[in-house]
Amino acid sequence: MKIFITRPIPEIGVNMLRDKGYEVLINESAVDRPADKKELLNGIKGVDAVLSVLTDQIDGEVMDAGLPDLKIIANYAVGFDNIDLEAAKKRSIAVTNTPGVLTNTVAEHTFALMLAISHRIVEADKFVRAGLYNAWGPMLLLGSGLSGKSLGIVGLGRIGSRVAEHAVRGFGMKVFYSDIKQSSEFEKEFRTQYFENLDDMLGRCDYVSLHVPLLESTKHLINEERLKLMKTTAYLINTSRGPIVDERALAWALKERWIRGAAIDVFENEPKIEPGLLKLNNIILTPHIASATEETRDKMAELAAHNIIETLEGRVPPNLV
Ligand code: GLV
Ligand code: GLV
User: Fold this and answer.
1) Which of 43, 136, 166, 216 is deepest in the core (most CB within 10 A)?
2) What's the whole-number mean pLDDT along residues 57-83?
């Protein structure tokens, strides 16, 4: 069996595949850049499985280059908007993702962003390094707290639920959520309130955190109109997918102070960033690293490799999407 890995990933996953006696081809040159289309088209030729990452656009053309041998595309991510699922289905190619293993890490990053923006950590660090800290001040760099505040979760999947749990148990926040479905058990356990209509929730939240997958229906879910529905004191956190937010509208909202701040890990046209955002100090930007801890990336590599092994040994992989 031959496996193509589109970019170098943690060794532990590679070794699992090699230990099975598979021939593993790694696109070694794509370390700090995405694989290009030519590399994908060439690499996929004659292989039984592809281990892809979220910067790979795997469309029908790429899949065709892998036929007739290609049986599975194992995405090293929980999101799979980079893969054309319809095209895979038509060609009977399995697609898997890596859910679960990154839930805690992404929830933690969500809080890292929430705390950093509300406590003005990045601004404060810049202030100290710039030599501006001359004296303690009663009004110096005043921020905003989490405790007792309301958090609106948009999308109550695994990650959204974990964020809600930390918010209630760890920070004494009041949690609201909006999702296509209501979860009564969750509501009871965490004393949360469900909003069928996102618009009705936004104006009540001190923090809004996005946890929906990227779909046609979620693109620009947070647009100009919805940013205007938020409190002027509210913060927006995005660790899901960039296109969920209209980035130009966000830049405008932050500049004109429709909302107080934002902290985002994902961008509409990664790795390009709306220039307006870069000039503002009421936003924190991280480069799509919400799942980037050593231990979690190891687990993602293991899970992607496991999905490949199960498929190639004729079993149903655990994380079919
Ligand atoms: C990262 O964004 C992922 O989907 O795993
Ligand atoms: C992803 O793991 C989600 O369901 O939130």
Assistant:
1) 43
2) 98
The DSSP bridge pattern shows strands 94-96 and 193-195 to be unpaired
CB-defined site of ligand 1, < 6 Å: 54, 77-79, 102, 291
Which residue in 241, 260, 297, 306 is the catalytic one?
241
**pTM for the full predicted model:** 0.96
Give, for ligand 1, the residue of 291, 307, 319, 321 to mutate: max count of ligand atoms closer than 8 Å to Cβ: 291
Annotated catalytic residue within 91, 119, 248, 288 = 288
Residue 254's nearest CA partner among 273, 236, 272 is 236
Listing DSSP states for 105-171 in one string gives HHHHHHHHHHHHHHTTHHHHHHHHHTT---S--TTTT-----TT-EEEEE--SHHHHHHHHIIIIIH
Kindly report, residue by residue over 152-173, the tens digit of the pLDDT: 999 999 999 999 999 999 999 9
Which whole number is the average pLDDT over 257-267? Answer: 98
Q: Whose CA is nearest to atom 3 of ligand 1?
A: 77
